[in-house]
Amino acid sequence: MGLTVCQTPTNCSGDTRNLVLIGMPGVGKSTVGVLLAKALSRSFIDTDVYIQAREGRQLQDIIDTDGLDSFRDIEAQHVLSLDCRAHVIATGGSVVYSAAAMRHLKARGIALYMRLPLPLLLDRLTNIDSRGVVMTPGQSVEDLFEEREALYERYADISVDCQGLTHEQTVARIVEATERWIGSS
After folding, report:
1. CA–CA separation, 64 vs 28, rounded Å?
2. Worst-scoring range by mean pLDDT, 10-19, 51-60, 75-84, 117-126?
3. How far is Cα 143 from Cα 146, in angstroms, rounded to an integer?
4. How far is CA 110 from CA 11, 37, 88, 134, in A?
5. E strand or H helix that includes residue 154
6. Could you tell me which CATH number the domain at 18-184 has?
7. CB 151 within 8 A of CB 131
């Protein structure tokens, strides 16, 4: 069962594509996503919250109980069920492991990679063991960053450097980059 298509006012030159935020855990996708949706008068979906609501349990519980591969399948299934336009979508950091999920998101949206350098991410990720991060046993955040960075870059239509920016400045940078990208495509 997918989400219904909403009659949502649009900005970004009247474009009705979703704005899909991708990036590492801790980069601020959820927080910035809410502010971006508010600034653009769009609806907001956080896929991690959506998965938890649909599954009736926390992400970390799904990972601990069902395993990483099963979590990735569950995540892909729920992302593939999304059917919306003119939304801001904050994805879980592991969504890029599913080519099908990313094709689905990009078919209906513009993928924005929110980038931060590893040292800043490490400062922000104080709850890595309970956050619901898809990491193999013994994998470090550094290894995870190296593994995922290439995937984020592969799928990104737009890459946004968030270093040194407040959440509001990040929103402004995303809006500006998106309008520039739409104008050039």
Report:
1. 24
2. 10-19
3. 5
4. 14, 14, 10, 24
5. helix 141-155
6. 3.40.50.300
7. no
DSSP class per residue in 94-142: GGGG-HHHHHHHHHSEEEEEEE--HHHHHHH-TTTTTTT----TT--HH
Burial class (CB in 10 A: 0-12, 13-18, 19+), 114: buried
d(CA 32, CA 30): 6
Backbone angles phi, psi at 43, to 5 degrees: -75, 160
Taking only the tens place, the pLDDT of each residue in 70-118 is: 999 999 999 999 999 999 999 999 999 999 999 999 999 999 999 999 9
3-state secondary structure of 45: strand
Tokens (6 digits) for 26 = 């801790």
What does each C-alpha distance from 35 to 1, 28, 57, 175 come to in angstroms? Answer: 27, 11, 26, 11
Helix, strand, coil distribution of the chain in percent, nearest 5: 50, 15, 35
Q: What residue spans define the domains of the chain?
A: 18-184
